[in-house]
Amino acid sequence: MTQVVTRFAPSPTGYLHIGGARTALFNWLYARGRGGKFLLRIEDTDRARSTPEATEAILKGMDWLGLDHDGEAVSQFARADRHVEVANELLAKGAAYKCFSTQEDIEAFREKARAEGTSTHFQSPWRDADPSTFPDAPFVVRLKTPQDGETVIEDEVQGIVRIKNANLDDMILLRSDATPVYMLAVVVDDHDMGVTHVIRGDDHLNNAARQMGIYTAMGWDLPVYAHIPLIHGPDGKKLSKRHGALGVEEYQAMGYPAAGMRNYLARLGWSHGDDEFFTDDQAKEWFGTDGIGKSPARFDFKKLENICGQHIAITDDAALLQEIVMYRAVAGLPDLTDVQSQRLNAALYCLKDRAKTFPELIEKAHFALIEGAVVPDEKAAKNLDSVSRGILSSLTPQLQNASWSRDDLETVLNRFAEENGMKFGKLAGPLRAALAGRAATPSVFDMMLVLGKETSLERLTQAATGGDS
After folding, report:
1. Which terminus, N or C, of the chain has the lesser number of Cβ atoms within 10 Å?
2. What sequence ranges are listed for the domain Aminoacyl-tRNA synthetase class I anticodon-binding (predicted)?
3. What is the CA 155 to chain-centroid distance, rounded?
4. Could you report how far apart the first and last alpha carbons of the chain are, in Å?
5. Residue 340 CB partners (closer than 8 Å, separation 6+)
6. Catalytic residues, which ones?
7. How far is Cα 394 from Cα 398, in angstroms, rounded to an integer?
8. Binding residues
């Protein structure tokens, strides 16, 4: 059985678009789930728009998403000689021809066609010309497209697509300066790289019909095609800046975990029954083109956040801490100190079930990241009036002898509340304000255990005395 080989082939003209990231993911899942290869090709033939910075952004985006590719990334531009070689081979076979028509000739043909109400697809007078009539002038090389019949695309997503050959022009393969066009380069590269499955956006569906002509003329096996619908915004219109972030790196900087992003993007246009939340291993096992819908998928931030929250909750603490450190670097936040890292790692067990993004988690971890004096915010300060400070002053000595286990802390605090004729909630407000400087925090017991005895008592004393300890 032939090994499955897929590829992702972005143009390095900007960031890694969210739609491109999903295409890469689909190809990665398809190959990885079948023991195949996933290749990366940078389609940098547009020299005016391709930049090293954009290539770097694509590689970084894929690295963050965990979409590892096999072998080195291939530069399409670097393979130009090979593309020219194939064009010359097609010329030698009689499957392509030299066309000496100028832009003026082509425009005159089209004006006449428009006036007569016939097809404006250019029909070159040089298609079957005798080489002895060739002028000493610049020419392009065109593919001889069949003039009757139809091209049939057997697409794994779109089904059988039929395109009349009369609607296809004789595509240019080499420009007049002998440089290859993108449409030729794609086919040659896919063939030479052994690509068996081409999974890409359905905006390339018409390209497939034209590219198949090169495969056929060269006697090459066609890949399996799967043209996937585009991604729309919540309003059903093509995803654009007005809907929010478009580049993958923006999602990393907003604090979405990579595993959650993979899960959500996989679910965007593909389904496996009613499963919304799944692991990478499940996605690799389940993913197939039969689960891809024909309609455009709609990007939904609430669903993304919901799935990301579930992934944060199940992620191993050490891996989660590492990803938070990476997020802070990308978001331009200061590095964590050793003490902050240790406390945050110790606190993850009581934070990760309640956060959908890393900024949310970091906000909940505020108590663990404070170094120095706790400065209560406006809401928390209301819980530190003179009565509350008196309560903390009375409580602190009783905590001095606590063993600092959860059971012991619960016993001491509950007994204190009871002895002072108050409900525990009345005690919790000042404790939250003293320990975290916030009114909404993880449980008081969790915070005290994470901070440890010394720091907890320091903060309670400081709050009780108004900082005059």
Report:
1. N
2. 337-463
3. 25
4. 76
5. 368, 369, 371
6. 241
7. 7
8. 241
Predicted TM-score (pTM) of the model is 0.92
Tens digit of each residue's pLDDT (9 = 90 or more) over 225-235: 999 999 998 88
DSSP secondary-structure letter at 203? G
Q: Which residues pair with 140 in a beta bridge?
A: 99
Q: List residues bridging with 270 in a β-sheet.
A: 292
Cα gap 469→467, rounded to integer Å? 6
Q: How many CB atoms lie within 10 A of CB 281?
A: 10
Distance CA 450, CA 448 (A): 6
- Classified as helix, coil or strand, 157 is coil
Q: In what order do the strands lie in the sheet with 159-164?
A: 159-164, 150-155, 224-228, 197-201
Q: How many helices and strands in the chain, by DSSP H and E?
A: 19, 12
Contacts of 406 (CB under 8 A, 6+ apart): 445, 449
H/E segment holding residue 96: strand 96-99
Radius of gyration of the chain (CA): 32
Show the 3-state SS of 208-252: HHHHHHHHHHHCCCCCEEEEECCEECCCCCECCHHHCCCEHHHHH
DSSP lists the bridge partners of residue 162 as: 152
Angle between helices 406-419 and 444-464 (to 10 degrees): 50
